[in-house]
From TrEMBL:
Entry's family note: Belongs to the 4-toluene sulfonate uptake permease (TSUP) (TC 2.A.102) family.
GO cellular component: plasma membrane
Compartment(s) of residence: Cell membrane; Membrane
Main location as per UniProt: membrane
Record's signal peptide: none
Protein name: Probable membrane transporter protein
Organism: Sulfitobacter alexandrii
UniProt keywords, alphabetically: Cell membrane, Membrane, Transmembrane, Transmembrane helix
Membrane association type: Multi-pass membrane protein
Length: 304
């Protein structure tokens, strides 16, 4: 069933969009990521303009993350204090990211730059996560528990706060910086930032994996909602029809993903997420290198 998207100015299959939303919702519940790192490139692949994909994809992330975090609240695996610190940094980063996005858009090269951002960040993060996950799995198979790194630099910073749910007593500076970075990426790339935040919370802050997922989703809800509002009011690139279809699929998928994630081991979750990140990175990289089917496109002057 074809449906016309007024802001994107293209026709798409409604069931295909629902399926994409459901797939990303499952990932959100399983891994504690908003799923935008996968959703936004998938929207590129079905013909949605990057500027619209970035802005509209954020709405689905809000819904799937909210649905997923409710399940984690019931299991008491959300560190609200840590989530609030991350959120403060995220809101500041999102505001700065919108300003940067608008500047890139004024240059007329936002499509290319968004894709390059994806290839670089997904490639680096995916490779690091994959290597570390393999080490963790080998340690478990050999009967030796994976060595937990001592976060001496984090513990040496000032302005310490106790995070009881996570069992940590660390400075608020690293979580704030992680939040700022995630906020910038949310604005420019249309992602929740979970693929950055989840590894940072595990390896930099030393949080338990089960607490990381729920806390990550909590922060993602508010940062992506704020980002969507800014895109809608400054760029007018949020397609409501596309957003509603993605929302329906995302909410349903997040509940299923949460149930799957609870049954899997932490090492398995991390290596699956790493493989997904690398797969999307590879597809985007190929699209940038291979010659497109149509070398030129016709559009109004100044169109993005």
């Amino acid at each position: 069933m074809q449906i016309y998207l007024p802001i994107a100015e293209v026709s798409v299959n409604a069931f295909l969009v629902l399926g994409l939303g459901g797939l990303v919702g499952i990932l959100s519940g399983m891994f504690g990521v908003g799923g935008g790192f996968l959703l936004t490139p998938l929207l590129f692949f079905i013909g949605i303009p990057p500027a619209v994909a970035v802005a509209t994809g954020a709405t689905q992330i809000v819904a799937s993350s909210f649905s997923g975090v409710l399940a984690h609240f019931r299991r008491r695996t959300v560190d609200l204090r840590m989530g609030t610190v991350l959120l403060i940094g995220g809101l500041v980063g999102a505001a700065f990211g919108i300003l940067l996005f608008n500047y890139l858009r004024s240059l007329g090269q936002v499509d290319l730059l968004v894709r390059l951002f994806y290839v670089v960040f997904l490639g680096i993060i995916g490779a690091l996560m994959f290597v570390e996950s393999l080490r963790a799995i080998r340690s478990v198979k050999s009967g030796k528990p994976p060595a937990r790194k001592k976060h001496s630099r984090v513990h040496g910073l000032p302005f310490k706060m106790r995070f009881r749910v996570s069992g940590l007593y660390i400075s608020v500076i690293p979580p704030l910086m992680v939040g700022v970075l995630v906020g910038v990426l949310a604005a420019i790339m249309g992602v929740g930032g979970g693929f950055i935040m989840v590894p940072a919370m595990i390896y930099l802050l030393g949080m338990p994996t089960k607490v990381v997922i729920g806390t990550s989703l909590f922060q993602i809800i508010f940062v992506t909602a704020f980002t969507t509002m800014l895109h809608a009011t400054t760029n007018y690139t949020v397609d409501v029809v596309l957003a509603v279809l993605l929302l329906i699929g995302g909410v349903l998928g997040a509940q299923l993903g949460t149930r799957i994630g609870v049954k899997m081991k932490a090492e398995q979750l991390r290596i699956l997420l790493a493989l997904l990140v690398l797969g999307v990175c590879g597809k985007l990289g190929l699209d940038l290198l291979l010659e497109p089917a149509e070398l030129y496109s016709i559009g109004p002057v100044g169109a993005v």
